Amino acid sequence: MTSQNATVEAAEYSWTEKIIEKYCVLTEDEHAGKPVKLMDWQRHLIRNSQGKRMVWLEIPRKNGKSAFIAMLAIAHMLEGFKNNSNPQVVLAAATREQAGILFAYVRNMILYNPELQKVLEPFRKEIRLKGRPGFLKTLTSDGGSNHGLNPSLVLADECHAWNEVKGPDLWEALRTSMAARDSQMIAITTAGGAYTFAHKWHEYAVRVQEQPEIDPSWLTIIYGAQDHEDPHDPKVWAKANPSLGVTVSMRYLEELSNTAKHDEPTLLSLRKLHLNQWAGSAQPYIELAKWLKCTNKKKDIKNWRCFLGVDLAAVNDFTAYAILFFNGEEFHTVQTYQITEHGMKKRKNKYPNLVQNWIKNGSLEIVKGEVTTTAHRVAMIERLMESYPVEGIFFDPWNAAETVDHMRQRYGKNFCYEVRQSALMLNEPMKLLYRSVVTGNLTHDGNPVTAWMIANTSLIVDKNDNWTFSKDKAPDRIDGTAAILTALAGFVHNAQTGLSAYDQDDIIFV
Fold first, then answer.
1. Which pLDDT score, from 0 to 100, does residue 148 have?
2. To 10 degrees, what angle do helices 65-83 and 40-48 make?
3. What's the rounded Cα separation, in Å, for the pair 296 and 363?
4. What angle do CA 157, 158, 163 make, to 5 degrees?
5. Which residues of the chain, if any, have pLDDT below 50?
6. What's the start-to-end Cα distance of the chain, in Å?
7. DSSP string, 120-131
């Protein structure tokens, strides 16, 4: 691992730098067994992290972070051997598989260098100091909280992928375990989903970066591109990827960029994985920042056409209602939700800060008990019908038969329509919603529940360039997105003419 722009004189190297470059070796490809040469961004972290209790590093994929974690672990173990300080190193990862990858880097560096084997002894699940107390072990975010630890160094990897239920418990267990000694925690991650456990700490890290005085114990280092920057500009690539030309190939990014100019999913991957921009899902449909820019709560929509999209809950989760307005040129949408007390309690346990925002700023009705009944749904729809000049109601037919029947009995069969969530029905509405958000041709009321669901929505593109989504593959609920798309499907397939489509009898949904 070499750097062409190394600018630091050897005489200025810290103890950690010297140890890494003296004893650590590369372990992969044709470079296996060769001594490590630290890159400038790695030296920057080592030097600036001295005396810091917490280090937060965000860096895109393929910049050599896993190997760097192994180097830091080995250097710390050797320092503990020298000082007889009983080092305890914890490698904390999202899953057992990822923890195994980190452990393999450490183990292989030891096996490649006989000098390290004189001090460090690798076992199947631990690395131990020979003849001295001290060890390295792995933990995962989907395991137990592991209270009772006394680590001297915690290296937390890919926090964006940590389990959303158990991950925060492990994080707090590790942070509070450092109280008894002069310990350090280094969290290294790529960008992940908005509104996740890691995103909360990303936001805190950005605050500390802008105002270091609020937390002097914390060091923030972020490599990434801003939302407004050109994702096809090599200068932006270099800014976001400090290992460009070493572990990240310029040719690879050029090829990816060329494809991304003609393929939206590839562009989203480029932004998230290689420019380190936080999004919602593994393959985000609409970037959260773009959605939030469309917020306009004071839109004058009195004379606009109006459609209602409904996505019904499975017993005790979210039911989403999306009012879609159209004035002949642009769209506006307002959303409201129902969820049971039981469902809300589960959400509050999982996302306490997020739920507080929903209750404070969202349009959200909490239904008593454990079940949202047809009566609850019908009552909500009737309130919306009284508040807005709805021309037609569009339902995802799943779990909706009884509610649709009630609505048809009251408003007529040509007022309530089923929209099946298939490529045939969703392709055009999904592309229309995406274009409208990107161009600013759609505004919304800023409901935080919807923003969370937009962030959770993944884009699926088939071989014929048909766009769909999958609730099963989403990191969490996307009912609000589905309700907006259901309303848009009604507009696209039945309401684009100047006449009311609901006076006709030949409206067909499949």
1. 67
2. 40
3. 15
4. 105
5. 1-8, 10-11, 280-281, 496-510
6. 57
7. EEE-SS-EEETT
